[in-house]
User: Fold this.
Amino acid sequence: MFLGIDVGTSSVKAVLIDAAQTMIASAAAAMDVTRPQPGWSEQNADDWLAATGAVLDQLAVSHKSQLAAVTGIGLSGHMHGATLLGADDKPLRPCILWNDGRSAAECLELEAAEPRFRTLGGNIVMPGFTAPKLAWVAKHEPAVFAKLRTVLLPKDYVRLWLTGTKASDMSDSAGTLWLNVATRDWAEPLLAATQLNRGHMPKLYEGSAATGTLRPELAARWGISAKAVVAGGGGDNAASACGVGVVRPGTAFLSLGTSGVLFVSTDRFTPNTDGAVHAFCHAIPNTWHVMGVALSAAGSLDWFAGVHGCSASDLVAEVGDSIDTPSSIVFLPYLSGERTPHNDAAVRGVFAGLGSDTTRCDMTQGLLEGVAYSIADCRDALAKGGATVERVLAVGGGSRSRLWLQIMADVLGVAVDVPAGGEVGAAFGAARLGLCAATGADPLAVCTQPAIEATLTPNPARAEAYAAALTRFRNLYPAIKGVLA
Assistant:
């Protein structure tokens, strides 16, 4: 048996799978996020331990014999969180989370002082990353910074509790901005830019490698008889990719969650910081990945549904099962700013082309298409770094709409595969990595793609019209840039 643990922002989830990768059980425990000031986002790191303990306690009751047979554990978690530990390995302050924006000034300072954040780190210095968070602490909480001995990412603090080892995997560590992503090692110049060194960092492992074994007292607590190894695991997106089999170079998934993510596996480091592309290590050896991020995908649809006091599915149902031509309404889905390709936190969403005859249905279609155009922007930004997309696997809540997926296929000009069965998340990918660590299995053989229920292919009759509509969409951003700050 193998266990996957995903330390999410709102909950910790654990899944139990057998050697055939059949899902045996799952459990979850909720957590809270605190916002001490506008734009801040923090979490008590020890809440992750309590929640992890709770979900495994649940499984120890509901699936005692299966949990007892666990030999491999994989970890996943939300990326970029700054968990600062003192000499006693206890947190010095609450963890500053991925969606905390307090370090904008420090980002500008780090970019000006050390341009190798883009070349070695492969990414623009943004408030979401870990490095600028530490620069903020050094400036604003010097007494805390003076006591700092170790910086860990969220899942790796859970690992420390589980195993007593300070370790991290390549994919999650790439999101700190301290990693030389090409060589898969800590970059000393980037650490020095934030007054840190290797001594502050955990040991690095591949996501499918064993990093330690479960502490005896915890094994006894949950009735785990064998010495279960704990795999390196991965950041949430990389672990999700392992879960859906997007591990071979050129494979890709499209996630239509609150945000939209276009994730492509690559065989080398291919950054494109000018297009605000994220270039990270993958969670398996000798593999990397690039991501384009649209900050408001299904989140745009949820917002529009909230305005009208109905459900998102009601809005989509009004549009129907298919469309003949693109909407004349142009929607920029920049409700929270935009990441790829603009890296513009100040821009806001726009409906353009409204007339006295415009209906809610027209606006909904324009919204669905606007999100698809933003994903097309991501696709082209990834292509400039050499990562081409030929087909995508659709995941996330928005992927339940076949209409939206058909729009994506038409706009992107690629086939969109719909997996059979239920949602497969980061915890499942983490369990797969735990399986590899325990058995020595090849991650490429373990992390296969699910059965495909349907494939939506581009409709050639709509290609020209969507190409023209995409041009209109792209012309709108320069016209409003800076106006809606």
